[in-house]
Amino acid sequence: MDRPEGSPQGGTTRTLLLVDDEENILRALRRVFRRDGYRILATTSPREALGWLEREPVGVIVSDQRMPEMSGVQFLSEVRERHPDTVRIVLSGYTELEAVTEAINRGAVYKFLTKPWDDELLRRNIAEAFRQYEMAAENARLARELRAANEELRRINEELEERVERKTRELAVNIRSLRIAQEVLEHLPVGVVGIDDEGAVVVANQAAMEHLAPGGVLVGLPAEAVLPAEAAELYRDFVADRRGTAVLADGSRLVASPMGPPEAPRGVVLVLLGGED
Fold first, then answer.
1. What's the rounded Cα separation, in Å, for the pair 200 and 32?
2. Are β-strands 267-273 and 191-196 bridged in parallel, bridged antiparallel, or unpaired?
3. Single pTM value for the model
4. Strand pairing of 191-196 and 87-92?
5. Which of 131, 142, 213, 243 could form a disulfide with 237 if both were Cys (CB 3.0 to 4.6 A apart)?
6. Domain boundary assignment for the chain
7. Residue 5 has what pLDDT?
8. 227-241: per-residue pLDDT in tens?
9. Which residues, including other chains, have CB under 8 Å from residue 87's CB and lie 6 or more apart?
10. Which of 97, 56, 57, 49 is nearest to 73 (CA)?
11. What's the CATH fold of domain 187-273?
12. What dihedral do alpha carbons 48, 53, 54, 57 form, nearest 10°?
């Protein structure tokens, strides 16, 4: 079957609730809306209609005003309290205009249509009511998605802030540890010289400077150019065949070892020991 005029593009069924205490009015309304493809619920009892609304996803309600159980305005006011998203329409005579106008002003009723009705005008009004209902439902859906997206963004930001805070604490600990390690290295009772894999001196503590280059400079210069001859020779020998010990002229012992893990050294460490060790 072709999609009826005014039905949603996605194919969702539009449910229309008709409430009138006259059966012949309900039959006539059914005939009017038959071609529009609505799912139609019809009853002569407003109280029965309220029960249906608890179970059925109704979009638009068309109610008579003058009914024995309760007036259309009373019925639709109660509907507004329980199901505010529905679009509520009164279809009645001009004699009830004042009461219905008051209900419209209070928001209980979306529109007032008169009896007798024009079929095509009535159909257009109901189609427009469903468009209003679906637009409001879509806006509500988008608002929920936006709230969910904002909540997810807030959660992600909190996680990022927590990670940054944790990393900042770790970095502070690492910096403090590095400073302490530098202090320890600087004041070791033995000399330590670090030479990178390009042959430049990158580390030389106080004891090394006093013994190997008193008053001079080691860090940043080529090891073979600035170290004493015995130390430079030990460095060359260690790089060539991993021989790791030499004795300096003053009897001190110089020991070479890889800088970094043995399987992937990043240079050479020379450790200056006293002559008696």
1. 95
2. antiparallel
3. 0.58
4. unpaired
5. 243
6. 15-142, 187-273
7. 39
8. 888 888 888 888 877
9. 59, 60, 61, 110, 129, 130, 132, 133
10. 97
11. Beta-Lactamase (3.30.450)
12. 150
